[in-house]
Each structure stands twice: as structure tokens, then as C-alpha cells.
Amino acid sequence: MNGDPLFLLTLALRYAHILGAIAMMGGTIFARFALVPVLSEQKDPLKSELHEQVRRRWAKFVHISIALLLISGFANLGLASRYNFGDAGEYKALYNILGGVKFLLALPIFLFASFLTGKSNAARKFQAAGPMWMNVTLALALVMVLMGGFLRFVPRTLKSKAPAATSQVVPAENGPISLENRAS
Q1: Is 24 domain-assigned?
Q2: Residue whose C-alpha is closest to residue 111's, from 99, 100, 122
Q3: How many domains does the chain have?
Q4: Contact yes or no for 158/89 (Cβ under 8 A)
Q5: pTM above the 0.85 mark?
Q6: Is 8 helix (H, G, I), strand (E, B) or coil?
Q7: d(CA 55, CA 119)
Q8: Does residue 1 form part of some domain?
Q9: Rg of the chain over CA atoms, in angstroms?
Q10: What are φ and ψ of residue 168, in 5° steps?
């Protein structure tokens, strides 16, 4: 489709990236604005038991989401080299800078999500201030989503492949000489 031999791969990577982001951000929105208020109204031991059951189940989704986002993000970064950004590549630096910022913002999001669903002593201490860290995570994720939406509309065209080198034989005094003709 659309002349890109890797169209199906890039489409699958896009879907994986979007699904990972939806799960991560949507789950955090649900936890912050629906689950945490309900849990805060409960008394122990019910509160601790519910928290543990949700944490244990949600941790699997967090880890899968992180894996989807990392794999698809790195693959998309590598595949971006196949494109010219703008008519003469004038948006390449902007695309690379924003892509790098998105990656840097992803690191604390992954860390916070891992701590919020972790079971170590450090994670338990982090979870004590869970609502604040969820707010920070959501703010960072919102910035990333907005940047990703912007990057999606940066004009791009698939780079054309350079023509293959051709050889021609030219007669000479001392025998034939092969000259390579490379189109630039």
C-alpha cells in the first residue's frame, strides 16, 4: 500500500505504540481518579487487600505496555531514517529533537509506573505518595501525547532509492577498462 514496502510493519508498530500508550495512560487515569478515591474511603485490612490485588494484576499490563512502547518506539526511530522530513529535510532536526525529548520523558513515566505497581520496599514507599506520582506521570504522558500528535503531522516523504550502479566497458589502448557510473 501507498508505495512503501514496509507499510504493514510500520502500521503494526504504530498500533502497538498506540495500544501501549492507551493502556499505560488510561490505566493511570482510572487508578488516579476512580480507584484511589474509592480505596481511600476503605479501612484496613480491606484497603490493603484490594490494593494488593489490583497492583498484582495491573503490574502485568504495565510491563507489557512498557515493552510495547520501547520496542515500537525504537523500531519507529530506526525506520524514521527512511523519510525526508519537509520538502528539503528542513524538519529533520525538529523531528529528531522532539523524538529525543519524547524518549527522555518516557523514562520517568516507565520508572514511576514500575514503582507504582512494584512490590519492593522502595516501591511501597513510593506508593505511599501514589496520587502525587500518578499526577506527575499523567502530566508527562500528556506532554508526550501532544508531542506525538504534532510529530505525526510533520510533512514526510519516503526517500527514493538511488539507482543501482551501472558498468560500461570503454575500449582503450591497453585493453578494456570498466567504468562505474553512479547516479547521484
Answers
A1: yes
A2: 122
A3: 1
A4: no
A5: no
A6: helix
A7: 8
A8: no
A9: 25
A10: -140, 145
Q: What is the pLDDT of residues 59-109, one digit of tens each?
A: 999 999 999 999 999 999 999 989 899 887 889 999 999 999 999 999 999
Q: For residue range 104-156, what is the model confidence (pLDDT) as tens digits? A: 999 999 999 999 999 999 999 999 999 999 999 999 999 999 999 999 999 98
Q: Is 67 domain-assigned?
A: yes
Cis peptide before 163 (omega within 30 of 0): no
Record the cell numbers describing residue 54, joined without a space: 489490583
Contact 51, 45 (CB under 8 A): no
- Write out the residue range of the structural domain in which residue 21 sits: 7-181
3 torsion bin: left (phi>0), alpha (psi -120 to 50), beta (else): left
pLDDT at 88: 74
Residue 68 falls inside a structural domain: yes
The dihedral sign for the CA sequence 5, 80, 157, 7 = positive
DSSP 16-71: HHHHHHHHHHHHHHHIIIIIHHHHHTS-TTHHHHHHHHHHHHHHHHHHHHHHHHHH
Distance from C-alpha of 120 to C-alpha of 123, rounded to nearest angstrom: 5
Dihedral Cα 28, 71, 151, 137, nearest 10 deg:
20
